[in-house]
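Q: A reviewer asked whether we had any structural model of the full assembly, not just the individual parts. We don't, so I'm hoping you can provide one. Inputs are below.
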Amino acid sequence: MNELREKAKELLLNNTVKLIIGYANGNGHNRTYPFIARNAADANRLVFNEYCVNNLAVYLTRKEFKGKGIIGIVAKGCDVKAIIQLIQENQINKDEVYIIGMNCNGAVNQLDNSFEKTTLAQKCINCTVRTPALYHALIGTTKDIEEPADTLGEKIKEVEKLNADSRWDFWEAQFEKCIKCYACRQVCPLCYCEQCIVDKTVPRWIESSAHTRGNFSWNIIRAFHLSGRCIGCGECERVCPMDIPLSMLNRKMSIIAKKEFDYSAGVSLDSPTLVGTYNMKDRQDFIK
Amino acid sequence: MDEKLITLNNLKIFAEELLKANYTLILQDKQGIRWEKISNSDELHISSKLKPTKASFKEFVFSKTEPIFYFNNKNDGVELIDSNLSAEKMVFFGSKPCDAKSINIMSKVFNWDYKDNFFNTKAENSIVIGMLCEYRDEFCFCTSVNLSPVSSDGSDLFLIPTDENNFAIRIVTEKGREFIQPFLKLFAEGNPETTDQIFKKINLPEKGFESEVIRSWIGNNFEHKYFERAGEICLGCGQCAFVCPVCHCFDIVDEECGYSCGRRMKNWDACQFSLFTLHGSGHNPRHNQTQRYRQRISHKFKYYVDKFDEILCTGCGRCSRGCPVGIDIGQIAKEVHSLAANKV
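A: Here is a predicted structure for the entire assembly that you could use as a starting point for your response.
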């Protein structure tokens, strides 16, 4: 913690960064919250622990911060994947972000839970980026952690075994719950459109009503728009007040991107984006 | 005040009888997500210790989406067809005081100038069986907004567990008295003094702020920098408004069914959405999240109080428990209270 605070202070005092997007403790709560540090006193409030679940990369494209000078950000390996993806999609300039990379030993799945093997967040299972792939400073050390089984993969396989009607029923029961609060969209670092297609009214492409039909349109269009782009931080599922298993859709899409195009989002600055690249070797057989 | 006694077993029979009499029973679900209709009294799952569900029962009296009317374009003009108002008789069973109060609070805005038949019909067809609450966490603050875990305000009947298998039930409103009348054989006479003793032993959440202080501070500090703190981290989703038992804003949109017909829908809307106040001209009077967050706090603790003499908040803590970025409205109210005390 001290290492993080000292680094933050140094960056703020020597004007390397204008501000640092990090985490602080809430008053009286075990949880941590996104916090913007602007001076040395703020820097002393920064924390990093297993309750730092938020993917702070979402703030990098917000107009309050974007283009306002070099922004420091406290980032876990998974958050850095989002930053890499944002740089590749030309949403942020890589010279305008200073990444304080955190060696990470896993995060808790729900903020009410204590941190242990059974409450490890799904995204942390089989994590390959416990040390971030890109950083300007690296803080902390990794240690061995016990991981539970990857139940998300199993859940996807179970639903895949169902016939089309039963799969529809499964998703209908899930999407019926949706209240269109758009927490999934707002918390997603890669949902950065200034005007989301669901908010367009002339013409209206997607019904804004939270009935089953409108909910199907919304959740499916979101899955499509994140295909080959989602970096799997799991924030959408974490914040969904109705507990819709959105990670199943996102994981399935990334499995397809990997299998069909040998592509994983947010892994390296050197690999161009999947949907932004034309490759003669890409499969053509689905074009009829 | 009239009070009856009922055993857990008889409470299940009571539920069974209600189902037979065509009442829809609505309870907190077992997953802690929302309120659900039950079809069998075996599913009666009530406890004073349950955590509030992520969503309140608001959805049943103020639908997340509903048609206002249907329209058909015909050769001789446009035909309008009224939407059917549901006559479903609903019973909210085992509601916490912070949920039970919600219908009365929303009723003020839905009957202020225009009488909203959609809300009113559902509210009139609802019976709220409230229940003493023994759940506490750091997000609860009902005692700061003039409620309490033992408040029967908003309930028609109020359940008080006296031990694991027995309840006392208070008859709070005339509506409650009429409702329970046909089932009185399942109840024994009770003694309000005994339950008053139970109330005295209940641990109350500590009062964190004076709502009147918040109201007057907001009135004098509209441009205060304090709002920026929440405003800059708020991501602008509608989670807080949609899980709130009393947030009641809605949008109106048309949905086409083809070239010549359609329906006009009333859908939940939220003041944290950037589109909420966007004008057709492109101007947006609340053009940043700080202004939108200030609106949320001001509506709850000032505007609604000024207009209807009622705080637009029941202290249930749902918005804070679920906020993606941990904005805690109870904590903010506390901080505003200290700002006011220090006259900043």
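A: Points you may want to mention in the reply: Chain A has nine helices and six strands. The two ends of chain A are 57 Å apart (CA to CA).
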